[in-house]
TrEMBL record:
PROSITE patterns: RADICAL_SAM (PS51918). It holds the Pfam family Radical_SAM. Residues 16-226 form the Radical SAM core domain. This is Radical SAM/SPASM domain-containing protein. InterPro entries: Aldolase_TIM, Elp3/MiaA/NifB-like_rSAM, PqqE-like, Radical_SAM_PqqE_MftC-like, rSAM, rSAM_sf. Coiled coil: none annotated. Its cofactor is [4Fe-4S] cluster. GO terms for molecular function: 4 iron, 4 sulfur cluster binding; catalytic activity; metal ion binding. It comes from the Bacteria. Keywords: 4Fe-4S, Iron, Iron-sulfur, Metal-binding, S-adenosyl-L-methionine.
Length: 384
């Protein structure tokens, strides 16, 4: 069942062959000091970063893999001098490109205009709280909240599609209603929700509990029905299970009768910027691939296992042949309750969070409250 492609905009996507999204960390340099930083970012660019020529080659290799979505990230991608040349090259090839720069003085109105002229599909800014106190604490930089709002104002004036990225953690869990209002007021077309993975600077005591995860997912599902923006989640694979369960309750049918891809009814964002939603769940190394600033290939930026380097082997060979990635793409190999869960092909749990907490990327998602039917059946037999 895993690896089966679903028709999507006339194309079949087989995650065993090609990713739906490729993230390239173009630099690790960044001026912020975020408490949850995955990259442990540094103030100056690394001299070992992929060169411009290597970057062009990488874009060609990504394009060859059925032209997935390409995201430039960092560090702060704005600290890479040839960023817009790389973006322009990719856009001219017919790629859908977005970027997630840090809100610093590097993001000028001129650069935003250049991004628009180059043909960038979408611009993502991070906002991790509805107030300066919460956001600035999380970002480790006083003034970051006000600066981010100022940059978003520019972006709205230029009529560039805006995505707001929010990491949900202990810091902002009690302020999500306000946060949703702010996302709406800022005219975002997509609210990209990340559930904290305790890696890099993000620590386990900042994670919300499994029960709180469930509450957030139910709240997001209800919000998705009325919000003027689309909602997408990362490191929150079990949101897909909640969506199926809630749909099944509403229609009074069994959730096994619903395909997850059929629940993606709102995709207003793609009508604006052409960045389509994944037709089926993406997970670390499964429809998703990450290339670091020095060319290391990882299942995702949050699952720090090196599976190859693009300086040594083409990306498609690494993606298709890596034993680690092959295991990540086979939910039947998952251990514990994830391995027997009826939702494992739709959800699969966050492999990155599982790895961060247990040290084993095939273990069971530690922040999920759901008990699979198979285990309930066993319990019933034991009790009987």
């Amino acid at each position: 069942m895993h690896g089966q492609g679903h028709p999507h905009m006339g194309k079949m996507i087989d995650y065993n062959e090609n990713p739906f999204i490729a993230i390239w960390e173009v630099t690790r340099a960044c001026q912020l000091k975020c408490v949850h930083c995955r990259a442990d970012a540094q103030t100056k660019p690394d001299p070992r970063e992929l060169t411009h020529e290597e970057g062009i080659q990488l874009i060609d290799q990504i394009y060859e893999m059925n032209n997935p979505m390409l995201v430039f990230t960092g560090g702060d991608c704005m600290m890479r001098e040839d960023l817009f040349d790389l973006a322009e090259y990719a856009v001219k090839k017919g790629m859908r490109v977005s970027m997630t720069p840090s809100a610093t003085a590097n993001v000028t109105k001129e650069r935003m205009e250049r991004a628009k002229n180059v043909g960038l599909s979408r611009w993502g800014f991070s906002l991790d709280g509805p107030t300066p106190e919460i956001h600035d604490h999380f970002r480790g930089t006083p003034g970051s909240f006000d600066l981010t709002l100022e940059k978003i104002k520019y972006l709205n004036e230029l009529e560039m599609p805006l995505q707001i990225n929010t990491v949900i953690s202990r810091y902002n869990y009690d302020h999500l209603e306000q946060m949703a209002e702010l996302v709406k007021d800022l005219k975002a077309i997509m609210w990209y929700i990340f559930l904290l993975v305790p890696t890099g600077r993000g620590q386990e005591d900042a994670c919300i509990t499994p029960a709180e995860h469930e509450k957030v997912f139910r709240w997001l599902y209800d919000l998705s029905k009325t919000a003027p923006f689309d909602i997408k989640t990362t490191a929150a694979q079990h949101y897909r299970r909640v969506v199926l369960q809630q749909k099944a309750r509403e229609h009074r049918i069994d959730s096994s009768e619903i395909r997850y891809e059929d629940t993606i009814t709102t995709d207003h964002a793609s009508m604006i910027d052409g960045l389509k939603r994944a037709p089926k769940g993406v997970n670390d190394g499964n429809g998703f691939i990450f290339i670091s600033h020095v060319g290391d290939v990882l299942p995702s930026g949050l699952l720090p296992i090196k599976v190859g380097n693009v300086r040594e082997k083409p990306l498609k060979e690494i993606y298709r042949e890596s034993p680690v990635l092959k295991e990540l793409r086979n939910p039947d190999l998952y251990k514990g309750k994830c391995g027997v869960c009826e939702y494992r092909f739709v959800c699969g749990g966050s492999r990155s969070r599982t790895y961060a907490v247990t040290g084993d990327y095939l273990e069971s998602e530690p922040y999920c409250v759901y008990t699979p039917m198979a285990l309930r059946g066993k319990k019933a037999v034991v009790q009987g």
